[in-house]
Specification:
Two copies of one chain form a homodimer. By secondary structure, chain A is α/β, with parallel strands linked by helices. Chain A has an eight-stranded parallel barrel with strand order 1-2-3-4-5-6-7-8, surrounded by seven helices. In chain A, helix 3 packs parallel to helix 5.
Chain lengths: ~280, ~280
């Protein structure tokens, strides 16, 4: 991989559109697909979603929690999904929301971002409660391996607003402090940087200048959570082309296991999102 | 398990003392033990630490990152460690710092706190960046299964202070908002509640009333990170007996793989911490 994650993602979005499909094998979804809530059901679901969205989605975003609930066997399925996605040349963002500090973050970096790990992905999501700068091992290993990190800035759920809008003793909102730190990391490179942020589509435009990121946005909240492609279009209207990756999960997955129905649904969302961001 | 996690932990601390031993199989520690940085090295290390601290430590705290770096094979080793710990009747706190919202947290709850999961533990650590109330699925499943959750309030590293000390629009520090919410959860029960907080020993006494938690404290930062048993004694001097669980990892693990040396080191730390908290 000669290009970094940011550049590769931007190329992919320009070619295929901004859709990221969430791979969320919850117990409820497996049941609604007529599958057992088991490792076998999990594997069927994950591979079926991947198969249906190749060529339509710029990336997939497996939600690690739904694999972890089956322990090591669930992780074996996740590893198979990641392997198949690499073979199919689909970018993968692992939604793991990992975050610790020091040598523990080296462990997480090794798990998700090192070349030798069976869990290696193109990018991983990270949570900054222990400080953005504490995530340095993840940033460093990502940079070394042309991979990426999406740091949580403003999530799509209401419960997080009080914390994310709190003001530091310097008078800055937490969401802005995190954003500013990630933007600073991207200043070192030409082209789109490897460090992105998660910013939910369910919210109003933040007070900080969103065009200053220099990296990609990962956008949850569209579909089942209530935001529309038009909300996305308005929120990100000033961001450069190919820098916004919009996740849709339940609104696509709810159509059930039939391949053509899944593909049709993904293509409709992709087209609507492309139009809204044009 | 008729008793909840809080009650069981308090009984254990009263019987054995307040020591929690961190199971942190980092690459550096495996190497310093003369073992390969591999799944085999991981398994040897984890089981050796457990074996050496049975009867001395009230609990062990495996750091999940160091198992995850080996993918599903690492998780298989973690499952074996958890199985052996249950057989040896040692309480386990999984240091996973999980945190999301809604159905995703149901996935994490199922992974760490449900009866049928191979990863089930007595308690798991959780991160509140998406809001403490968003952790409700973890709290609910913990309560149903007499297990526990330790929510990050004030971590032991410097990088997290700006965020954790930020003030919400109601004028409350983030650390106090999280603390208050967890304390509220414990008000429903007699005896020590199942919901604890992580509060690092490296810091000064917070502005909120630490005696109001009604649940256990998990205390990192002692030993390699610089805090002493005396720091712990001062910080928690007003907390009820048996409510403070103090994690020590590197300062014990650095003695190497020899069983009696590990046991001696753990006993010294246990005795020093017991004296400081008496």
């Amino acid at each position: 991989m000669a290009d970094g994650f940011g550049v590769r993602l931007q190329e992919r979005i320009r070619a295929l559109g901004p859709l990221c499909v969430g791979v969320d094998p919850s117990a409820a979804l497996l049941t609604s697909w007529g599958r057992s809530d088991s490792v076998e059901g999990l594997e069927f679901f994950a591979l079926a979603v991947l198969d249906a969205v190749v060529g339509t989605a710029a990336a997939i975003k497996p939600q690690v929690a739904f694999f972890e609930r089956f322990g090591s066997e669930g992780y074996r399925v996740l590893e198979r999904l990641l392997h198949e996605a690499r073979d199919a040349d689909v970018l993968v963002v692992a939604d793991a929301k990992r975050g610790d500090f020091n040598v523990t973050n080296e462990g997480y970096a090794e798990a998700w971002l090192s070349e030798r790990s069976p869990l290696r992905v193109d990018a991983v999501t990270a949570s900054p409660y222990l400080g953005v700068s504490a995530l340095e091992p993840l940033f460093r290993v990502a940079e070394e391996n042309d991979r990426g990190v999406f740091v949580l800035v403003a999530t799509s759920n209401d419960e997080g607003r009080a914390l994310q809008m709190a003001r530091t003793d310097e008078g800055e909102r937490v969401e802005e402090m995190v954003f500013r730190h990630v933007a600073h990391l991207n200043q070192r490179v030409d082209g789109l940087g490897n460090f992105g942020v998660v910013l939910g589509a369910t919210r109003d435009r933040p007070a900080f200048d969103m065009t200053k990121l220099g990296g990609p946005y990962l956008v949850p909240g569209v579909g089942a959570q209530g935001a529309t492609p038009e909300n996305v279009g308005r929120l990100f209207d000033r961001c450069p082309a190919g820098t916004v990756l919009v996740n849709v999960a339940r609104s696509i997955l709810n159509v059930g296991p039939e391949r053509s129905a899944l593909k049709d649904s993904a293509q409709r969302w992709r087209d609507d999102l492309s139009a809204a961001l044009a």
